[in-house]
Specification:
By secondary structure, this protein is of the alpha+beta class. It has 20 helices and 23 strands. The protein has a domain of 59 residues. An eleven-stranded mixed sheet has the order 3-7-8-14-11-10-9-22-23-21-20, sandwiched between helices. The longest helix has 25 residues. This is proline--tRNA ligase.
Length: 707
């Protein structure tokens, strides 16, 4: 077997995306298959990426005073039944424990599909007074959803890792603000760590989280498969769950201040409950109705207004949020950046940012001078830093100024006669109409909370390479691996590390030794660079920064070329069939969206394979893991009927020339199409008609096939 056959990818990305992806994630050693369908073994390379994401996000939410918890993974049936509307979406995927040994349980328990029903009974016990708020909880854990559709490593699995945040506030204004703050953090994970552009938006009524008031999302697009993917979500739950789980606090203020509103009979200390539960809830509900619009309402415990003499108290249901991001991040990055040679890793999440390969070593030739030369380079890597924006190398934010300032970003033009979907949060105009809920219109614009302050640095160099930064960023050396194995050739090593996606390969032989240089090859584009061995840390740092910048711009360009602006149903179907996402004028009505789904014959997301049949890509288990059970095997027949030709799609005129939708021949919505989101960066379409039902349009909607 040749090195190419052993390590290389045998299927091209553009020919069979599903097979290509399976080979990349397994041959790069991101994952291995397990004997149970939909469960995967995360290997060190992927777990390192997840750890970097955890570290990045944890620093962000710590600034918001979010605290870490860990809750049990088991949930009772009675607790689940309290949130029937919410749990309805998860019911087919719930895994129940019904026995231990040979003994049947009188009360079966489920393994968490999400943790609302586990956490919120505790919230009800913990929260007594408005002074207990806000409560901000986060946990990193695993989730089990017995996926009945096709499974895809990282993208759609039965067990996966995630972060879930759950918070409670006294006022809706505080809650709304946090929803968008967290959404910004998720956008930064993709942009600043993974070099992936995402679209911020709000979910349609049909696609929002079950039980939520509204759901905000960041959406990515996978050009290789022509599908969108939900990258992370941040939900406003309003008071829906606090009413289910009786999460109330005693809020105090002057009579008529909007909290309590004259219904003082149900107040009192702590969690006093009326015998008539419905009456209590009704009065508490009434007591919340005036909060939003009353300018005198201010129950923030940190506000000095709380020292005003109090004349009235009443129980109020708290306003809640939940938000989460999963190991799907790794799959999205792999799908977007990787190529026919294997994995391509963004530098900031790569376990090894540089691999050093000694060359020209032969029997009888003294290699001692060569390895001494290599040692001088590795010492500099260990003693330096990989930049942070402050310029001194902290890896927390490796020189992301291009994201804010680079003309490469701000000069990107319209997407196919449409405004570009930019990555900054803006208000949706007349969101009242979009959501049919007055609660949405109060969402404010939250700017990215990036630290642009000037930092002062002090560095203390010792033999152990310790450094001190006064700005509290963790110092990080360049992560490198010296592959000095002597039983394989340099060419073997090139293939080995190329498929694993290491951003930079440094080749050092006697030629480099004699010339005091390094030969550097970029994994991203294969560019070869000769660098003088002077200030080498700074030069390598610059190369890593440049790789990240170019990866982001490439992904942005490929995405924008595949988001097409259309106005008719005929063109909508045509562009979806061509593997694109579409921006269309839309009425945003729930009934219109449901009618689209009925015509498509689907109920939302599909798996990874084909336009016709959803197949479990774990069929690859039978090739890559001989220990897999028969449950992991699937029909290996591929659907080759998909039209992969996208001739002239980049120059296609996006203006609608098709006339009335009713006269068009195409009437079937392609499989798996749904509204991905209503982008926050939108435009006035009040003079347009809905592409589907011909009602007045309220906003541009982003539609496409989705994982």
């Amino acid at each position: 077997m040749t090195n190419q056959q052993k390590f290389g990818i045998s299927i091209k990305k553009e020919e069979d995306f599903s097979e290509w992806y399976c080979q990349v994630v397994t041959k790069s050693e991101l994952i291995d298959y397990y004997t149970i369908k939909g469960c995967y073994i995360m290997r060190p390379l992927s777990l390192f990426i997840w750890t970097k994401i955890k570290d990045f996000f944890t620093k962000k939410i710590q600034k918001l005073n979010v605290q870490e918890y860990y809750f049990p993974m088991l949930v009772t049936k009675s607790s689940l039944e309290k949130e029937k509307d919410h749990i309805e979406n998860f019911a087919p995927e719930l895994a129940w424990i019904t026995s231990y040994g040979n003994v049947l349980l009188d009360n079966p328990v489920a393994i968490r599909p999400t943790s609302e029903s586990i956490m919120y009974p505790c919230f009800s016990k913990w929260l007594r007074s408005h002074r207990d708020l806000p409560l901000k909880v986060n946990q990193w854990c695993n989730i089990l959803r017995w996926e009945v559709k096709s499974t895809t490593p990282f993208i759609r699995a039965r067990e996966f890792l995630w972060q879930e945040g759950h918070t409670a506030f006294l006022t809706k204004e505080e809650s709304d603000k946090e929803v968008l703050q967290i959404l910004d953090f998720y956008s930064q994970i993709y942009q600043e760590l993974l070099a992936i552009p995402v679209i911020k938006g709000i979910k349609s009524e049909n696609e929002k989280f079950g039980g939520a008031l509204y759901t905000t999302t960041v959406e990515a697009f996978i050009p290789g498969s022509g599908r969108g993917v939900q990258a992370a979500t941040s939900h406003s739950l309003g008071t829906n769950f606090s009413r289910m789980y009786d999460i109330k606090v005693t809020s105090e203020g002057n009579i008529g201040n909007g909290i309590g509103g004259g219904e003082g009979g149900e107040g009192g200390e702590g969690k006093n409950k009326s015998k008539d539960k419905n009456k209590t809830k009704s009065k508490s509900k009434d007591s919340n109705t005036n909060t939003k619009d009353n300018p005198n309402t201010n129950n923030n415990p940190n506000n000095t207004n709380n020292n005003i003499p109090l004349k009235h108290s009443s129980d109020s249901f708290v306003h809640q949020n939940s938000w989460g991001i999963t190991t799907r991040t790794i799959g999205i990055s792999t799908m977007i950046h990787s190529d026919n040679k294997g994995l391509v890793l963004p530098p900031k999440v790569a376990m090894y940012q540089v691999v050093i390969i000694p060359c020209g070593i032969t029997v009888g030739r003294d290699s001692t001078p060569l390895f001494r030369y290599i040692q001088t380079i590795t010492k500099e890597f260990e003693g330096g830093y990989v930049g942070c924006g402050c310029g001194e190398g902290c890896e927390d934010s490796m020189d992301n100024t291009y994201i804010k300032d680079s003309k490469d970003i701000k000069d990107i033009k319209d997407i196919k006669d449409s405004k570009d979907i930019k990555d900054n949060t803006k208000d949706i105009k007349d969101s009242k109409d979009i959501k049919d809920s007055k609660d949405i219109k109060d969402i404010k614009d939250i700017k990215d909370s990036k630290d642009n302050t000037t930092h002062t640095h002090t560095h203390t160099h010792t033999h152990t390479h310790t450094h001190t930064h006064t700005h509290n960023h963790t110092p990080q050396p360049i992560r490198y691996f010296l592959d000095d194995k002597t039983n394989v050739s340099p060419g073997y090593k090139y293939n080995y590390w190329e498929i694993r996606g290491v951003p930079l390969r440094i080749e050092i032989g006697f030629k480099e030794l004699n010339n005091n240089t390094l030969t550097v090859i970029r994994r991203f584009d294969g560019k070869k660079i000769i660098l003088e061995n002077k200030n080498i840390f700074k030069k390598i740092k610059n190369e890593l920064n440049e790789i990240h910048r170019l990866m982001y711009l490439k992904a942005l360009k490929e995405r924008d070329e595949r988001i097409i602006r259309v106005e008719s149903y005929y063109r909508f179907v045509e562009e979806i069939e061509n593997g694109n996402c579409v921006l269309v004028p839309w009425c945003c009505d729930k009934e219109c969206e449901e009618e689209l789904k009925r015509r498509g014959g689907v109920e939302g997301e599909v798996g990874m394979d084909s336009n016709k049949d959803s197949k479990d890509i774990s069929k690859d288990n039978t090739r890559d893991n001989k220990n897999n059970t028969s449950d992991n095997t699937r029909d290996n027949t591929r659907d080759n009927t998909r039209d992969d030709t996208r001739d002239n799609k980049n120059t296609r005129d996006n203006k609608d020339n098709t006339g009335d939708n009713k006269n068009n021949v195409l009437t079937t919505v392609p499989l798996g199409v749904k509204c991905m989101c209503i982008p926050y960066d939108n435009e006035d379409v009040s003079d347009k008609k809905c592409f589907n039902c011909n009602k007045s349009a309220k906003s541009l909607g982003l539609f496409g096939r989705s994982y």
